[in-house]
Amino acid sequence: MTEASYPVPAAWAKDARIDAAAYDRMYAEAATDPDAFWAKEAQRLDWIVPPTKIKDTSFDEADFRIRWFEDGQLNVAANCVDRHADTRPDATAILWEGDDPADSRTISYAELRDEVSRLANALKARGVAKGDRVTIYLPMIPEAAFAMLACARIGAIHSVVFGGFSPDSLCNRIHDCDSRVVITADEGLRGGKTIPLKANVDAALDQGDLGVETVIVVRRTGGDIAMTEGRDCWYHECVANQSTDCAPEPMNAEDPLFILYTSGSTGQPKGVLHTTGGYLVWASMTHEYVFDYRAGDVFWCAADVGWVTGHTYTLYGALANGATTVMFEGVPNYPDHSRFWQIVDKYQVSTLYTAPTALRALMREGDDWVTRTSRKSLRLLGSVGEPINPEAWNWYHNVVGEGRCPIVDTWWQTETGGHMISPLPGATALKPGSATKPLFGVVPELVDADGKVLDGAVEGNLVIADSWPGQMRTVWNDHARFFQTYFSTYPGKYFTGDGCRRDADGYYWITGRVDDVINVSGHRMGTAEVESALVAHSKVAEAAVVGMPHDVKGQGIYAYVMLNANAEPSEELRKELVQWVRREIGPIATPDVLQFARGLPKTRSGKIMRRILRKIAENQLDGLGDTSTLADPTVVDALITGREKAT
Ligand code: WTA
Hints:
Blueprint: H1 10-14, H2 20-32, H3 34-42, E1 55-58, E2 65-68, E3 73-74, H4 76-87, E4 92-97, E5 104-108, H5 109-125, E6 133-137, H6 142-154, E7 157-160, H7 167-177, E8 181-185, E9 188-190, E10 193-195, H8 197-206, E11 214-218, E12 232-234, H9 235-240, E13 251-252, E14 256-262, E15 270-275, H10 277-290, E16 298-301, H11 308-320, E17 324-328, H12 339-347, E18 351-354, H13 356-363, H14 368-371, E19 380-384, H15 390-400, E20 407-410, E21 444-447, E22 453-454, E23 458-464, E24 474-475, H16 479-487, E25 494-502, E26 508-513, E27 517-520, E28 523-526, H17 527-535, E29 540-550, E30 554-563, H18 571-584, E31 593-596, H19 610-618, H20 634-646
Parallel strand pairs: 4-17, 6-7, 6-8, 7-14, 8-11, 11-12, 16-17, 16-18, 18-19, 19-20, 30-31
Antiparallel strand pairs: 1-2, 3-13, 4-5, 9-10, 14-15, 15-24, 21-22, 21-23, 23-25, 25-26, 27-28, 29-30
The chain binds 5'-O-[(S)-ethoxy(hydroxy)phosphoryl]adenosine.
The site of 5'-O-[(S)-ethoxy(hydroxy)phosphoryl]adenosine (WTA) has 23 residues, from helix 11, strand 20, strand 25 and strand 26.
Cofactor: Mg(2+)
Catalytic activity: acetate + ATP + CoA = acetyl-CoA + AMP + diphosphate
Binding site for ATP: 385-387, 409-414, 498, 513, 524
């Protein structure tokens, strides 16, 4: 292998919590005696009833089950808040940085406990009980953390919906998990622009009888909004008279903690369900080992809490470990392109965790925005969400980290709960673009299309052969879909949907999705979702959506659209359809290219050959392969000609 390799820096090797030998030893321990390994790791949490049964799992259809720590009892909020508030009440839990650099707030663990308890009592007063679902549609403000933790405290199941999703998407998610309570804000604020969150909630609730009884509204901007008598109440009024005492609900380790909707290759987004004990052990362990978390570190995960990265690392993992976590409301380029590095200096951030798409966007603005700041506090950098291209890796390493900070390129998924394949900074030599090696308890395998396990240096489909504590437990309301989606393609194994290469050193290189999911700016988007939004338009007969390479976003959205006989292609209609998708799903689903097509490449049995559409979108016209089996081979030439007009 000729890839560049960066050995563990001397300072890190000397002071490593887990060095290369310890990594090997712990990996072997987790493999040979998982019960002993995980019983020990579980001790990182405070249990009301410590578990005696540790691992009880099988991916086989006949006795399919995933249970971890199943006789243990604990409460997530007690672990993330109370136990630190008891011992270090004045330690900072959350450093909140507003969209406007003049806006910030410091919240100690004692204050966090009070805020969470008051909201928890307010929810109870509104009739929310253990097992009830609460939808959270908030910007990156402290109340988002309070809301998630308040749910955890009383055993309610939160479903956070990213503030960039449309009323339609929000409506579907509220409906699917049957939430009776929604927590939102008047407006969000990002890059100086407002986002009409409350108006979106109103529009979502207007779409049908969703059974939402309570909408709690945080006053963020003071913007003009409508309040529905009897249903809506201001957050500050709801919590005003509530007590700061609220006993944490004892939860079984396998009781649900949250639902988070994510896109798959077919159908509507799935409600990924995570439970209490295994998830928190995994969040805490990976946060500690992968980020080499040490007391006093200021940890900044720049992901929105609307995504799993924000759940597991901005919030649960960081707070379980008693860290100071930075919550940033804004965007990397506002007021200017130095914002990230100004925040690093302002709060003396030790670890920054962000996505390659943000790095690529900042990289093109030039080094000066970075080098004019100090960044001396940084000791570790992290990457997540998509493969990081070596150019962005090198820039992150050399310019941002001045060659001093290791980069942990963490591969994982909403479904996995936390990191799966990642370097440990004191143990793993780095190769730019590789997520390197599996964490403890993670058994990756590469298989071919028939499920045959491939050995050695090879490329294949990435599966995980055994259960790990942080794994999702089901798809909300659809256990059959859970099994079908993840365990039926390669029986007995969890299928990730990713392609991957393993090199001669046993390092893993994720090559991207092998299903119909595309990764836009580190966000998952199902091509089927965009297609169904398009065909919902009265002028559209058929649509096919594929990913295309994009310099900043990683992948962009390329849509082929066939119109109904009564409609004519026009620039105006093209714009209208692009806007339509934005409105139906949200801005993150905006097609980058929309090409009108008079026909799509289909086999004689009517199946769309996406491979061909992908190649055309990529402009790889010599890679089209055999098109003679198409029902109408001439559509390909028409698509190639049409591409020039569209791009
Ligand atoms: C991709 C985000 C390469 C992958 C935590 C996965 C990555 C999907 C990496 C999950 C990485 C995530 N290198 N690809 N370090 N991290 N991915 O559910 O395709 O939003 O399947 O979870 O992102 O996206 P999700």
